[in-house]
What we know:
39% helix; Rossmann fold; 14 helices; five-stranded parallel beta sheet; eight-stranded mixed beta sheet; elongated
Amino acid sequence: MHALLVTRDERVITEFQKISAVTQTPLVIECEPNASELANAYRVFISPDCVDVGINHNEIVLVVIGATGPETWRFAAQLSANHIAVIPDSREWLVEHLSAPASKKGMCVGVIPGAGGAGASILSCGLAFHARQFFNDVVLVDLDQTSAGLDIILGIEAQPGMRWHDFSSLTGSISGGDILRGLPARDGVALLTHQASESVSENFMPSSIIEQLRNASELVIIDLPRFTNQEAMIEILKLCDIVYVATPSTVRGSASTKKVIASIQKHIKNVELVIRNMPGTNLDALKIAQSLNVPLAGAITSDPRIIEQIEQGFGFAGIHLGGFTRNLNALAQRLAQTNEIQHAA
């Protein structure tokens, strides 16, 4: 994230460069900023010579050299500016407000399969559902375009609301609160997913949308596809406070997961294991975690009744299956404790 200065005025540029050097603030200077520069700006400063550029942002400051006049207020109204800063009188205000606003970001958790049959999507949905007890405004983000959307698992595929393709063609910026209010939701969990009939550009980078959601919620859970070394996935992993790698309790699954963990740990330190106990295997969850040299976050029981509930469109609210429910609830509680420790540090 950065401050964005929209101007052609060299006097304004010189003033802002001095202030950004003192405050060590990342500053982007453009006379016609692109959509990415706008989306990643926490505040936009505009001088009168650029008021007709067409800036759409929630935090706009009109910057004036010298004194204000009737035209200044007309420009401010045109921009829907939150504030007018007059140079040099407003230097102290600019020093304070050029820096990024202090905000407590929501926790970001990635869930990624270490092998086929790991049940990562079920884990993501179930964890989001149970985490509502400990977090306000839980958001589930579906980044696996290779499979059907998580709206099917939650039983809300027919519910209206914004999907990923709505953001890929978006121009200008949008706040995390507006995104959150526009998403479909069920049982207190908001969902950002894709739609089978709509494609998203390969060049679309979802990280800015996820960052906005972190600003507006206490927990963002990202359902990730199988690991690749693509730049977009690595960027998402770096946003995560913790990544849960899901794996089935099989020899082949453990071997595959070992490679995935080694790749992920190049980009993020906090990696933990969630094991899906499979019928017919005698592998112990703790021993698997020890062999992979990662902490064991939890083990989830396989149960065909889960699929029955999902197939009937009931979501997770009606799933009360003893071990499965207890284990997911314990994992959500562990996540809340980790969040408290991180914020206290």
